[in-house]
Write a structure and sequence with these properties.
The chain is an alpha/beta fold. It has two domains: 95 residues, Translation factors (Elongation Factor Tu (Ef-tu), domain 3), CATH 2.40.30; 116 residues, Nucleotide-binding domain of ferredoxin-NADP reductase (FNR) module (Rossmann fold, 3-Layer(aba) Sandwich). The strands form two sheets. Strands 4-3-6-1-2-5 form a six-stranded antiparallel sheet, with no helix packed on it. Strands 9-8-7-10-11 form a five-stranded parallel sheet. It is built from five helices and eleven strands, in the order βββββαββαβαβαβαβ.
């Protein structure tokens, strides 16, 4: 399937969203990802394909690819992506992923590390549209205030949804057992989603186990490097 670049948006320091219009209507579940193919000159060992979370909600229709870019170096794929101009088309295919909200729970804790925030844009917008934000805590770990992605959206959603609370966790603070015990009342009664770098996700999973959260109450999504 061809998707055409409509525009790009600077979301935060070194983070850019690419808005693509699919050539035909496309359906996906909030939290899923999509593969992209960009043929380019002398690709590195990772080749001409990557998958990225779809950060737009299904009702927005267009595909939003949001990614972090290294100041120096980086993959040839990312350089090719940055080189696209509005009107350019690329191949997109194979929607997949199980980091989705299949069954509505009374309360959630969404935990994000860095660019792992991207699936929550789609998930939370979809829940808001369905009037299903009743008791959701978003713990968002990132480097500093300049690194917050979708910050204006989170401010607006908190204002419009009394059931949503967004907490920023800036370095050097970590989302560990101590913070979980401080921020979350009765963690064993909540459904947890964790998205971010693999080491961060595993560390948070371990902390949740320490405070009594069962494995079946934890959904995880690992993000690869930024290159």
């Amino acid at each position: 399937m061809k998707v055409e670049l409509i525009k790009t948006i600077n979301e935060a320091k070194n983070v850019i969203s690419f808005i693509f219009q699919p050539e035909k209507p496309l359906s996906w579940k909030p939290g899923q990802f999509l593969f992209y193919k960009i043929p380019h000159h002398r690709p590195d060992r990772r080749g001409i394909e990557r998958h990225f979370t779809i950060s737009s909600a299904p009702f927005e229709h267009n595909i939003r690819l949001t990614s972090k870019f290294l100041r120096q170096g980086g993959s040839t794929f990312k350089k090719a992506l940055l080189g696209l101009e509005p009107g350019d088309s690329i191949e997109a295919y194979n929607i997949g992923g199980s980091f989705t909200v299949e069954k509505k729970e009374p309360s959630y804790v969404f935990i994000a590390g860095g660019i792992g925030i991207t699936p929550y844009r789609s998930i939370l917008l979809d829940l808001e549209r369905a009037d299903s934000i009743k008791d959701i805590l978003l713990l968002y770990s990132c480097r500093d205030r300049e690194s917050v992605v979708f910050g204006k959206l989170w401010d607006k959603m908190q204002k419009n949804n009394k059931g949503l609370s967004v907490n920023y966790i800036f370095e050097p603070q970590l989302i560990d057992k101590k913070l979980i015990e401080e921020k979350i009342r009765d963690p064993g009664k909540r459904k947890f989603y964790i998205s971010g770098p693999i080491n961060m996700v595993k560390a948070v999973q371990g902390s949740l186990s320490e405070v009594g959260v069962n494995e079946d109450k934890i959904v995880m999504d690992y993000f690869p490097g930024y290159d």
